[in-house]
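pinging the channel bc i need a second pair of eyes. not urgent but kinda urgent?? the chain im working w is below, pasted from the shared doc
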Amino acid sequence: MSVALLSPALAVEPSEKLADPKLEARARAIASELRCLVCQNQSIDDSDAPLAKDLRVIVRERLKDGASDAEVRDYVVARYGDFVLLRPPVKPETLLLWAAPALALIGGVWAIFAAVRRNRRAGAPALTAEERAQLQALGVEPPPSPSPARAGEGNGRGDAQPS
């Protein structure tokens, strides 16, 4: 059982395999680059879906007919679009797909930077006159008053700051 778990999970059935080992290797290489349209996160080489099996058969038939690897890929892409490729080409239609991870990273860094900057600006709220009096009664020196630029902002609780 452990040998079965360690072997690659390939869904190619014995009846699909080509007699020529070189053609079979080419078929497997092409199938590993094509997405199963049912599973979407598996290649057609790994998928057990009936559509994946049909695509594997098409790949093998085209190779038997003498088509090159590129011709087989182009044939499948012409029928199913760039989505069928596990690594779609970079072109205007797929540019957002390729740029999305970088855009998400830049957006995340910007959001973190903005949050840190906002927290630094806010600082601790100023003490009310009552809180200053309580600190002085305890014998603790209250912190200095906020800068004049912040004097009219209030302390976040609706109370005006003392001047």
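so The radius of gyration is 33 Å. and Residues 1-9 have pLDDT under 50 and may be disordered. — does that match what u expected or am i reading it wrong
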